[in-house]
Design a protein that fits this description.
This protein is α+β, with helices and mostly antiparallel strands and about 750 residues long. Helices cover about 50% and strands about 10% of the residues. The chain has 26 helices and 19 strands. Strand 11 and strand 12 form a beta hairpin. The chain is flat and about 145 Å long.
């Protein structure tokens, strides 16, 4: 059993990814299980990769690269070099000694490379560059015959008849762009044109065989067309006259009624109106006679005149003004063969060409001249194809390994070397975001990208009249000051700076620490909003009351204005406020007392309170951070990611970095504009001291610190209690005792 190729893998993003470093790795890429590929498709546009190379690999020309196309490109390149290691070494300079001349394809490539170098005056060169091949292709494109199989009117040069023929074929059969960008025709279109011309020639020759004796052929064609144009309406007219002859009562129903004409009178009419064309050709009577000139339906007057001139006159020898049913049947019988011949006319883009013109096209020698131009262009086709193949080989030598490390594995991304899908770096909110992807439609992209469980900011970028949209992943730091409308600067991979503005946000946690403080920040924001709303409402109420009072004072007569009465304090209100404050203080003291009674368990209680507040937020954040993935972000951009490609905390911190002062920098921490917080700091210190003293008292830590005279005396027991001196017996007591 043949042993399979020995691959190496590395672990990144919780996925085993293959290591692709050598030419043998490239040569055996088709043997790697597709389930181990990181991506199964990628777009040819919108990524940081040479689109010309991607277009050469995209054989289907659907704008996407898939595994079969990538494997085919690897096999194509490996088959044309002696050692596949040159494909891993890279570079856009191909050594001639690297081409495998033992194969037919390799020998043709080597010959073309030497031909290109000879044309460039470097026959002794041992290598060829991509620039030299592209220069040769550009010169080929500028030649009259460039081997692309397309010729244009300009190719005919001074032959005006041939140039006109090429333009005529383009108009009738369409055109295609040559490699020089000029529209022209290829051999298929030229051969189709002359094949259709011969079909018309054969059709003209079949007129006698089909029994159409009317000559010339143009007259027979015109007569048959004239009869076909009115045959249905003429047959309809004579059918109506037959019914009237059978029963005169049918005359009124078979002719237009007054009500019908009244309905027509409400419309905007012309001789071509459909409602007029639907009427009979003439007034239906019992006579089987159709007028051709007078008293005819104006919508059909022109067609009847053509019938009279093109068919009636050639057949009957005179231009009749009326046509009986017998004459009409004879006319149809005479021209039936011509009609059959007309029906046999081949349908071609050439239309209805006269026989003389068809003959001129076929016997004038233009066909041979046109095919000669195509033959001359085909003679250069082989050189053009080999030059393009040479360009493809050099491009694959330069780009193939990098593409594999951005498709089969994401080693370029996890080594932080700049993956193909990374559009650049966004600087915003005091940090840089390296995970940025170009998107075509933010709304459509966000529907799927939300599954990445990552904090995403969609930014609209503008530069020198250009505009594009990117999505940036914020994977570390806080997100308190990220909001729609905030501006930043985006640097693309070429170093160009763009003005970036946030247009859409997808909220997700960035770290456990950020989730810990999130409930407190939300609570403070809620308090601030409520206080602001309440203050605004009170302010509006006060302003309204002041305005009303001022209006009353301004309009009231002075003698009617009441004297200001001294304001009295409501004793009941004061008492109610006192009771409320007393109840609140009692509750607070009770809670604080119970809290102090916990003694050594106070730290655990505080920890429990903190966990009760921040625990759920931290748990949700932990679950989402475990699911944070690169896959949905790229899937929404047209990729087909085969694995989850997790973004853990370590990778996240490297993708979003905050600004740091250099270690060797000197810092002056004295901020002359810093806010003064002396009172607040003093209150905090006092609260901490009081809490520490209460805790020390409850834990009896003060017993070993305070002097003995300051310590509280312990309560005396019953045995140690001093005896009270005996009091003298009273007379009553003594007498009782004596008794």
């Amino acid at each position: 059993m043949e042993q399979s190729y020995e691959w190496q893998f590395f672990r990144a993003g919780d996925v085993d990814q293959v290591v692709i470093r050598t030419g043998q790795d490239i040569a055996h890429i088709g043997e790697l299980d597709k389930k181990l590929w990181v991506a199964l498709a990628c777009p040819t546009r919108g990524i940081e990769f040479d689109s010309a190379t991607l277009d050469l690999i995209d054989v289907s020309k659907d704008g996407r690269i898939r595994p079969p196309e990538l494997v085919a490109a690897c096999q194509w390149a490996v088959a044309r070099v002696k050692d596949p290691q040159v494909l891993a070494d890279g570079g856009d300079v191909l050594q001639l000694s690297s081409i495998d001349e033992t194969s037919e394809e390799g020998a043709m490539l080597l010959a073309e490379a030497r031909r290109v170098l000879a044309i460039a005056g470097q026959s002794d060169a041992r290598s060829i560059t991509l620039a030299q091949v592209q220069e040769r292709l550009a010169s080929l494109q500028a030649l009259r015959f460039n081997g692309d199989g397309v010729i244009s009117a300009a190719t005919a040069q001074d032959n005006e008849a041939l140039a006109a023929l090429i333009a005529r074929i383009q108009d009738a059969y369409g055109s295609m762009d040559g490699c020089d960008g000029v529209a022209g025709i290829d051999r298929v279109r030229a051969e189709a044109f002359f094949a259709d011309a011969r079909a018309l020639q054969t059709w003209f020759a079949q007129a006698a065989e089909l029994g159409c004796q009317l000559t010339p052929r143009t007259q027979a064609l015109a007569a048959a067309e004239a009869v076909n144009a009115v045959q249905a309406k003429v047959d309809d007219f004579f059918a109506r006259t037959g019914l009237v002859a059978f029963d005169p009562r049918a005359q009124a129903p078979l002719n237009p009624t007054e009500e019908g004409y009244a309905a027509l009178g409400t419309q905007v009419l012309n001789n071509g109106s459909d409602c007029i064309a639907a009427l009979p050709l003439a007034t239906v009577t019992g006579e089987h006679v159709l007028p051709l000139v007078q008293s005819v339906n104006p919508a059909w007057a022109a067609a009847l005149q053509t019938l009279r001139e093109q068919a009636v006159q050639p057949v009957f020898g005179e231009a009749l003004t009326e046509l009986t049913q017998v004459q009409w049947d004879l006319l149809k019988s005479t021209l039936s063969q011509c009609q059959a011949w007309l029906a046999a006319c081949p349908a071609t883009p050439l239309g209805s060409l006269p026989e003389s013109e068809v003959q001129a096209l076929l016997v004038g020698g233009l066909e041979a001249d046109l095919l000669a131009l195509l033959d001359q262009d085909d003679a250069e086709k082989e050189h053009s194809e080999q030059a393009m193949a040479l360009e493809k080989l050099i491009r694959l030598q330069r780009d193939l390994l990098e593409l594999l490390n951005n498709f089969v594995s994401f080693s370029r991304f996890y080594r932080r070397e700049g993956a193909a899908f990374q559009a650049g770096t966004l600087f915003l909110d005091g940090r840089s975001c390296d995970l940025t992807v170009e998107v075509a439609d933010a709304a459509a992209h966000s529907a799927l990208a939300a599954m990445a469980k990552t904090y995403l900011a969609y930014c609209e970028c503008r530069r020198e009249g250009e505009k594009k949209t990117i999505v940036a992943a914020f994977t570390a730091g806080d997100v308190d000051f990220l909001f729609v409308g905030r501006n930043g600067v985006f640097y693309d991979r070429a170093g160009n700076d763009w003005d970036a503005t946030i247009v859409k946000l997808i909220d997700n946690p960035t770290s456990i620490g950020q989730a810990f403080f999130s409930p407190y920040k939300k609570f403070l924001r809620m308090i601030e909003e409520q206080v602001a709303k309440h203050a605004a409402a009170k302010n509006d109420l006060v302003n309204t009351n002041l305005g009303d009072s001022a209006a009353k004072l301004a309009t009231a007569p002075k003698e009617l204005a009441p004297a200001a009465a001294p304001r009295k304090t409501d004793v009941g209100t004061v008492a109610a406020i006192g009771v409320a404050l007393g109840s609140l203080s009692a509750v607070i003291v009770g809670i604080f007392g119970k809290f102090i009674e916990l003694g050594p368990w106070i730290p655990m209680a505080m920890l429990g309170i903190i966990l009760a507040i921040s625990g759920p937020s931290m748990m949700i954040a932990w679950l989402k951070l475990r699911q944070r993935s690169l896959g949905p972000i790229l899937d929404a951009s047209g990729w087909a990611i085969n694995g989850r490609m997790n973004i853990n905390l370590g990778l996240g911190r490297s993708l979003s970095q905050t600004g740091k002062v250099p270690l060797n920098a000197k810092r002056n921490l004295a901020d002359p504009f810093a806010d003064s917080h002396k009172l607040r700091n003093s209150l905090w210190v006092l609260a901490v001291v009081v809490l520490a003293l209460l805790l020390a008292w409850r834990l009896h830590w003060l017993d070993t610190v305070l002097p003995t005279k300051w310590q509280p005396k312990p309560a005396a027991t019953a045995a140690e209690a001093p005896q009270a001196p005996a009091s003298p017996a009273s007379p009553e007591t003594g007498g009782a005792a004596a008794q």
